[in-house]
Amino acid sequence: MHTTFKAGFWITSLTLFLSACGGQTSQTIPTEQAASAAKTNKELPTYLVATEASFAPYEFRDENGLVVGYDVDILNAIAEDQGFKVQFINQKWDGIFDTLKNGQRDIIAAALGVNEERQKSFELSDPYSYSGNIAVYIDPALKINTIDDLKNLKVSTQENTYTLEVLNKHGVTDILPAPTLYLALKEMMNQKAQVVAGDAAVLHYYLKSLPDTKYYSIPIKTANNTNNPIVFALKKGNTELLGKINTGLHNIKANGTYDKINQKWFGKASITD
Questions:
Q1: Which class does domain 7-17+132-220 fall in?
Q2: pTM, entire model
Q3: For 22-130+229-266, CATH number?
């Protein structure tokens, strides 16, 4: 796909855009966004949700510092349906799983992909979306057609992510890891990498805010040619809360809320593999 933008203008524009979204945040900012309470006077339980709010449109900070995004809306809708509240805690990606294991957080909502280690270590919800990965580049001379064409190129991507696993499995070894996908994109735009790879929705969301650069992209598929499911993670053994989340997800799909949220953030009613 193609979009046009001026290379000299893009960094200033993207930095201003993401400063409002919290794309470069290094602090931990508690942000409470309670789901609508059930129509009852009974005190509802509140669950603490770990997220990294630098992954728009899934989760990011708005101009008021509140954590917003697709994941936030989905989990709030589930909470409303099931009669509990959620409080989002914005924190660094590094160490986010430790806060779940040690009981500091109850849920991770961070556009979380599925891998074998996470399946063994945590309770994972039913998928609420699917993640497609892409490689983006701005130099047309590269002529990238498949993931195999990345093997001799320097590729930037976010560290400790599903995308990095896919690149490694395909033999891509010259990788420049970055703390966030935004910073990985910046590495390419600053010519420290030739390609940036990551979640398609996130990269397109960032790039569409830049009006004047031409870029190219190719899909990066898994071995079985499917996209990766996105799930919520809970502490191992917390099957009671897992059941509530899965039931709530089923219900919001049935009552049309899920389609409305997808339409709001992605311009289409459903996200499938």
A1: alpha beta
A2: 0.74
A3: 3.40.190.10
